[in-house]
From TrEMBL:
Lineage: Bacteria, Pseudomonadati, Pseudomonadota, Betaproteobacteria, Neisseriales
Species of provenance: Vogesella indigofera (Pseudomonas indigofera)
Pfam families, alphabetized: Acetyltransf_3
Protein name: GNAT family protein
N-terminal signal peptide: none
Domain N-acetyltransferase: 12-169
Amino acid sequence: MSVFPVLQSARLTLREFRPQDAPALFDIYRDAVSMRWFGTEPLQTLAQAEAQVAVFIGWQQLPNPWLRWAVESQADQQLAGSCGLFKWNRGWRSCTLGYELAPAYRGQGMMREALQLALDWGFANMALNRIEAQVHPDNLPSIRLLQGLGFVQEGRLREAGFWLGQYHDLLAFSLLRQDWVQPS
């Protein structure tokens, strides 16, 4: 991918991560309450966030690039979270969706808005037929978000994740191209 896609809605800009995003990403990723759903340990240092930003930027160099957009609020030009399409399998025309949002931006429909942009872009530009997502069974806001976007729950993956010192079941969701209708 030669040019990183920048996407915009009425309230958001989805753009490439920049090194200066590390402090805001650190604020999100160090929050143990939020990270209980994310599938990884909370970050402990700003250096870890800087390394994570470098990983997101480096994904563009993969043979099948992975996209992780910085979700920026247009109202305050602050990093509100991120979303991305990763584990792209060109042959199978599938990928996985991931996302997180800072607590201050939750409950306002921002992630729904961001994911609508990302899903539209993925179906239009990556020749995708299927987008998958995995969610902790207790993460009810995320489950409602996916269902509201048309994702269908396909099953439960027993002890599929390991973080915070224990195994976690995950619910498997998918969205097919034929089922994607931009929600209003």
